[in-house]
């Protein structure tokens, strides 16, 4: 099981710790470092900054949001950074949800998310393979554009720049069972949002057709500490925000996922409290058991024991959310 460092996205501003953490992860033998985006900082610029200061560690987006860019634009970002970094890019993509797509990007959330994802990946692959001009007569993505409001002058094009790697890895952040199953067919790997090594049966059917070499790369908050309950507080805060606030009361993919993982009543309670403006109560309502299952929190011996559970399942890459160099060193040593 390879280790990765997940840096996430910025809060109010850039963190001075991100480059030092990436350098430490590379020194420790971590395989990859990952950036993200929501509705603030973008995923590619910080990754480029890190690329210029590192030499070996792979560079991943977890995730770049599909609504933020046309698929050809995303492919241009990936092939450019892949050249500049010497072939280290791993392109992680995610569809996000209606709240972000429509509220931030000002675009309709696709009525058929699976089709929209499949078309997006198809175009990205065409650009990277550069076997011919990009052409797709899709429901959501059309190349060249043939809409009634167009000029009709669009021309099918292939990239001027020759991609460094036509097989640059594409991974997808997917949550629903059908979306995960499709991911095994059209992508090189999957980026689970929550992963419990004790509940792998939740994903067993969806991953059943995964080909050999398929990457399963979940994120997990990691912290070496004596007080497990205190160490879980950042995990609970994150879960409270995602389950309570990242979606509508009637449509929240994160709450639905927690429900499928055996915490349906608790997920609905967290959502209810958060949407009522009782955010602190929502965080406290997140079960310690759930937060603990998807994390690596506690003393060294406890983390060593729990790390064994992660190794026994299908996880190929464990992406650690940890702002603590001591924790990164400890997990590297235990792995």
From TrEMBL:
Q: Which CDD domains match?
A: Tetrahydromethanopterin_reductase
Domain Luciferase-like per the UniProt entry, residue ranges: 16-315
Domain of life of the source: Bacteria
For this UniProt record, give its keywords in alphabetical order, as a comma-separated list: Oxidoreductase
Q: Which NCBIfam families match?
A: F420_Rv3520c
The name this protein goes by in its record: LLM class F420-dependent oxidoreductase
């Amino acid at each position: 099981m390879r280790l990765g460092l997940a840096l996430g996205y910025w809060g109010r501003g850039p963190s001075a710790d991100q480059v030092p953490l990436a350098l430490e992860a590379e020194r420790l033998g971590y395989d990859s470092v990952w950036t993200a985006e929501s509705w603030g900082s973008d995923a590619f610029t910080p990754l480029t900054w890190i690329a210029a200061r590192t030499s070996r560690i792979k560079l991943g987006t977890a995730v770049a949001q599909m609504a933020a860019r046309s698929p050809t634009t995303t492919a241009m970002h990936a092939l450019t950074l892949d050249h500049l970094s010497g072939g280290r890019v791993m392109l992680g993509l995610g569809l996000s949800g209606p709240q972000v797509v429509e509220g931030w990007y000002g675009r309709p959330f696709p009525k058929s998310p699976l089709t929209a994802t499949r078309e997006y990946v198809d175009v990205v692959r065409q650009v990277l393979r550069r076997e011919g001009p990009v052409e797709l007569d899709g429901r959501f993505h059309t190349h060249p554009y043939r809409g009634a409001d167009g000029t009709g002058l669009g021309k099918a094009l292939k990239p001027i720049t020759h991609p460094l790697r036509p097989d640059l890895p594409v991974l997808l952040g997917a949550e629903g069972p059908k979306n995960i199953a499709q991911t095994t067919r059209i992508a090189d790997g999957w980026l689970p949002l929550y992963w419990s090594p004790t509940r792998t049966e939740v994903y067993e059917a969806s991953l059943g057709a995964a080909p050999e070499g398929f990457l399963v790369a979940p994120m997990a908050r990691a912290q070496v500490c004596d007080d497990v309950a205190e160490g879980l507080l950042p995990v609970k805060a994150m879960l409270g925000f995602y389950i309570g606030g990242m979606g509508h009361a009637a449509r929240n993919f994160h709450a639905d996922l927690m429900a499928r993982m055996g915490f349906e009543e608790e997920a609905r309670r967290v959502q209810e409290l958060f949407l009522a403006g009782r955010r602190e109560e929502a965080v406290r309502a997140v079960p310690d058991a759930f937060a603990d299952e998807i994390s690596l929190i506690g003393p060294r011996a406890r983390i060593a024991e729990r790390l064994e559970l992660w190794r026994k399942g299908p996880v190929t890459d464990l992406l650690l959310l940890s702002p603590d160099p001591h924790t990164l060193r400890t997990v590297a040593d235990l792995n």
